[in-house]
Amino acid sequence: METSNHNSRIMDMFEKGKVLKICAPMVRYSKLAFRSLVRKYNCDICFTPMIVADDFMRSVKARDSEFTTNASDRPLIVQFAAHDAQTLADSACVVAPFSDGVDLNCGCPQRWATSAGYGACLINKPELVKDMVTHVRNQVDNPNYTASIKIRIHKDLRQTVDLCQKAESAGVSWITVHGRTAEERHQTVHYDAIKLIKDSVSIPVIANGDIKYLRDVESIHQLTGVDGMFKLPLKMTLQWTVVALFLYVEMGILVILCLPFISARRWQSIFQLRIWSCVSKFWNKVFLTMIIILIVLFLDAVREVRKYSAKDLGSDAKLQPNMFDHLHMKLFRAQRNLYISGFAVFLWLVMKRVVTLINQLASASGSTAALQLQADNANQAAKKYTEDNELLKKTLMEGKGDKATAEGMELLRKQVEKMKEELKTSEDAVKKSQSEADVMKKQTDGLAREYDRLLREHQELQNLQDGETKKDD
């Protein structure tokens, strides 16, 4: 931490009549480097990420890790999560020389925070909030040092107004209002509730929730009359960028697989490379995993489309025309995500089917080629036999007298002799096989007799041994 003698009075900034642009505290984002960046774009006030006061006071390592600043990092508000007045006051005294104020987080809806007594659960404890603001005011020596709170609203706005008025009586510098209840996440912000709180107190009120563009600042200011805006930098979602990239990869692969000048048998030879045999071991698991991921994203996109398609703007639509654009933008993004995830699932299934069909087509093509070769060989043999038969018939029909008969008989005699030779060869083979079978039979009979003899000798020895054993007894 670096000490600075800069003691600018932040409350004077509210009295100049302009709407302040304030960078909201974001976990892991609102560190020194990020704050230095947003200050270059006319950000009036910056907040640190939420710091747990108990850990901050307990550990020097935590203080050095969670809070860093420099001389140009002003005006700066340090936001704490606390459930004890003295711990919050001690933390404020530690950071007071390096900052311009502290902010008590009474709006964090995360379960871990509310279960530990931090965040949004404090809006139901107005006396504790009042006590914590009073302790900070009394124990920080700098009179210009601010003590503010950030809250969410109740379903019963009377409770929220009561909380704000009690905090005002304790000397709170300003109140930041996130226009949703602790249970709401992405629902439309209740700007009418922020306006009601602004009209109920005399201290500055800062609006928070769905302020993503500079044009939103002016429209919400006209709607609520607040003194400042918490603006969250718009972040692109990584998962949909990955899904879109995956969709383009699928489209590219399908185009390559459908190229007409690459045959199915060529693709099959590519699929049979060693690298694919290694990948095939995990293919089914990868395929099912991607199907599950894409279906989950598809269902999430369906939920978003249904949510923003059924929005009822009510009376706020007349007061805030930009709300239409904002909801239509969210609906457009939800529909875009729906199309991306839906086509990704569809093309993933199509790609698997195309690969299967290519393999089946290549196998069928190979079988057809083999059958065609066998048919060609059979046709050639039949053609040869037909030609020989026709030659013999022609010789017999065109020949005259004894000469034709002699030629025909000579040709038949040669064929008969050839068949006799083949028959003799077959008979010799049969006789040889018969003789070998007889030899094997004789050997088998000899082995059987020898086995019987050995068995009798073994039995005699066994009987002899049993007799000797009885004599010894």
UniProtKB/TrEMBL annotation:
Residues that span the membrane, as ranges: 238-262, 282-302, 338-355
InterPro entries per UniProt: Aldolase_TIM, BAP29/BAP31_N, Bap31/Bap29_C, DUS-like_FMN-bd, tRNA_hU_synthase_CS
Topological relation to the membrane, as annotated: Multi-pass membrane protein
Residue ranges occupied by any Bap31/Bap29 cytoplasmic coiled-coil domain in the UniProt entry: 414-473
Record's keyword terms, sorted: Apoptosis, Coiled coil, Endoplasmic reticulum, Flavoprotein, FMN, Membrane, Oxidoreductase, Protein transport, Transmembrane, Transmembrane helix, Transport, tRNA processing
Region (Disordered): 423-445
Cofactor: FMN
EC numbers for this chain: 1.3.1.90
Any one biological process term the GO annotation gives: apoptotic process
SUPFAM superfamilies in UniProt: FMN-linked oxidoreductases
GO molecular function, one term: flavin adenine dinucleotide binding
GO cellular component entries: endoplasmic reticulum membrane
Reaction it catalyzes: 5,6-dihydrouridine(20a) in tRNA + NADP(+) = uridine(20a) in tRNA + NADPH + H(+); 5,6-dihydrouridine(20a) in tRNA + NAD(+) = uridine(20a) in tRNA + NADH + H(+); 5,6-dihydrouridine(20b) in tRNA + NAD(+) = uridine(20b) in tRNA + NADH + H(+); 5,6-dihydrouridine(20b) in tRNA + NADP(+) = uridine(20b) in tRNA + NADPH + H(+)
Subcellular location: Endoplasmic reticulum membrane
UniProt record similarity statement: Belongs to the BCAP29/BCAP31 family. Belongs to the Dus family. Dus4 subfamily.
PANTHER family hit by this protein: TRNA-DIHYDROURIDINE SYNTHASE, TRNA-DIHYDROURIDINE(20A_20B) SYNTHASE [NAD(P)+]-LIKE
Role description: Catalyzes the synthesis of dihydrouridine, a modified base found in the D-loop of most tRNAs.
Protein name: tRNA-dihydrouridine(20a/20b) synthase [NAD(P)+]-like
Native source organism of the sequence: Gymnodraco acuticeps (Antarctic dragonfish)
